[in-house]
Amino acid sequence: MSVLVVGISHNSAPVHLLERVALDRDGVHKLVHDAAACEHVSEATVIATCNRLEIYADVDRFHGSVEDVSRLLVERADQSTEAMLPHLYVHYDDGAVSHLFQVAAGLDSMAVGEGQILGQTREALRLGQELGTVGPALNVLFQQALRVGKRSRAETDIDLAAPSLVTAALDRSSAAVGDLAGKRVLVVGAGAMAGLATATVARLGAGEITVANRSAERAARLAGEYGGRPTPLSALAVELERADVVIACAGATGLLVTVEMVEAARPDQRPMSIIDLALPHDVDPAVGRLPGITLINLAELAAELHESEAGREVLEVRRIVTQEVAAFLSARRQASVTPTVVALRSMATSVVESEMERLVGRLPDLDDAARAEVLQTVRRVADKLLHQPTVRVKELANETGAVSYAAALAELFALDPDAVDAVTRPEGLG
Hints:
Blueprint: E1 2-9, H1 15-20, H2 25-36, E2 41-49, E3 52-59, H3 65-77, H4 81-84, E4 89-92, H5 94-105, H6 116-131, H7 136-155, H8 161-177, E5 184-188, H9 192-203, E6 208-213, H10 216-225, E7 229-232, H11 236-242, E8 245-248, H12 259-265, E9 272-276, E10 293-297, H13 298-307, H14 309-362, H15 368-396, H16 402-412, H17 417-429
Helix pairs in contact: 5-7, 5-14, 6-7, 7-14, 8-9, 8-13, 11-12, 13-14, 14-15, 14-16, 14-17, 15-16
């Protein structure tokens, strides 16, 4: 069995598609059940956030399972397969492990390093356990992912990365429009990065905060937390006339802030700072060439962040994740050959016992001391014959082709497949 991930997130899709696949609690429960009911799936759970929907499944084959699981997301978006598939991503086996560890560590978040994703990963595990759709494979994987997420935050200051990005942008902005205190700030979007931006400008004393978003409910929720005012995206042109600082982080399809809109909003060419933190861009790059406009984009900030202390923390977390992925995959590969090794040793024990019974039958006068010595000798011979093959197959488990080595061992010694499978059952059920 191997782990399959099929998902859609802020990294792969525009906001309007993410909103189409957004699910409430009942919707998430149904998606988990539907995924677990797919033909080639034995375990399943879902990570669902405001900008991420990912199905994790333990599957017996890639082809067949990826089509079925992908179809579940296409159906929920109520879009054509052709329209949705370019925005879905798939990770399989080793790649799925690496992806989940990066997600739990905060490396795949819109606001890099944010801690909320760790709780959402934990919730995905808890939900799968509650619904009975998570078994040994996903349980071990998610438990380890949670440990990786905790280690990343305990050993680094990764949680400072996203705030550093916003702070760096506002530092640059102050050179154009002055101190933020008393200024009118327009935040475009209501996701994780928008929330971080809103919290930061509120802390720095912004005089007025307006949150523009396609979803009125999410705009109202975010604005309400910081004493701001919500507004629909349709009013963006009007709001640009009022704003001193604009922070765009919606990541919508197409540009939200155009040259024409900004020109109309600034006929007097008074200074205005526009910060574009979205991928894809929310703001037309040509806006930066307008008189009085300072445009700060994500690429410039990312380069600055890379050289900063926060950037070094991101690199350190990547090192931790890489290390943890390698260790997990190594342990998993070694565990995959354990049933074969145990079955081989069980077979050898059975042969020794059988031969001792035959020997005792042919030599009934053999005293207890002699019988014990013979038994010990035969066991030592069996152990020595099996020692090298079992050590080597475990060593080879970390190399390409490890599964074939275990299969060859089973074939050469004519091991019963059912006996090999049985070795994992008590452990898996525990």
